[in-house]
Design a protein that fits this description.
Blueprint: E1 47-53, H1 56-64, E2 69-77, H2 86-90, E3 97-104, H3 111-120, E4 129-130, E5 133-134, E6 140-144, H4 147-166, E7 175-178, E8 186-187, H5 195-198
Parallel strand pairs: 6-7
Antiparallel strand pairs: 1-3, 1-6, 2-3, 2-8, 4-5
Helix pairs in contact: 3-4
Length: 222
């Protein structure tokens, strides 16, 4: 099943695995680095953002290292199967991408800054892959929690597309869609949460294009 055609083909709701009514595993209460609760409700004034940018182990670390981020958690989003497992998502039969949920203080780190980090931390032109990681679960995605987030995310995509094209990259394949009831965020298993804090030498497939965002055409450092 892991090497089926669904590695690079999004299943329809009829083709997807049926899933289950409840999560099949427990998750920890608190973030191992930040010390704050993983699950909401979050303190007043915080906002939530959801991003898919390849393997969520390295992606989550990018966000928890950012000032103004209150907590992060990883999960599965944008698919059809309710409460999937990691193995099911990796089979390509659920339609989900690996996602990071970020609870942040917009007075410290605005949503535009998180978008900049998102775009610069991966290659959003690769479709159903990131580097050597191939599959629909590695596709680039932004799931928005308000009309303002949707508009801001689309504007940042348009700006970044211009500089990517100027640098020789193809079109951005990132899906930008509301994180509504049709795209719920399903928590990943406990061992995936803050994986690179628990396993500092663990695999991290995150890598950007080197092109800065959202303005200008200068190459980012590194």
């Amino acid at each position: 099943m892991l090497f089926s055609r669904f590695k690079t083909h999004l299943p329809t709701s009829e083709e997807a695995l049926k899933g289950r009514p409840e999560r099949a595993f427990a998750v920890p209460d608190r973030h191992t680095v930040l010390g704050n609760p993983l699950l909401g409700p979050y303190p007043e004034g915080l906002e939530v953002a959801d991003f898919g940018l390849g393997c969520f182990w390295g992606a989550e670390r990018k966000f928890w290292q950012t000032d103004g981020v209150w907590t992060t958690l990883v999960g599965y989003q944008g698919g059809h199967t309710p409460n999937p497992t990691y193995e099911e998502v990796c089979s390509g039969h659920t339609g989900h991408t690996e996602a990071v949920r970020v609870a942040f203080d917009p007075a410290v780190v605005p949503y535009t800054s998180l978008l900049k980090l998102f775009w610069e931390s991966h290659d959003p032109t690769q479709g159903f892959r990131q580097g050597n990681d191939v599959g629909t679960q590695y596709r680039s995605a932004i799931y928005t929690h308000s009309p303002a987030q949707q508009q801001t995310a689309e504007a940042s995509r348009d700006a970044y597309r211009t500089v990517l094209h100027a640098s020789g990259y193809g079109d951005i394949t990132t899906e930008i869609l509301p994180a509504d009831t049709t795209r719920p965020f399903y928590l990943a298993e406990a061992y995936h949460q803050q994986y690179l804090d628990k396993n500092p030498a663990g695999y991290c497939g995150i890598g950007g294009t080197g092109v800065s965002c959202p303005v200008g055409v200068a190459k980012a450092d590194g």
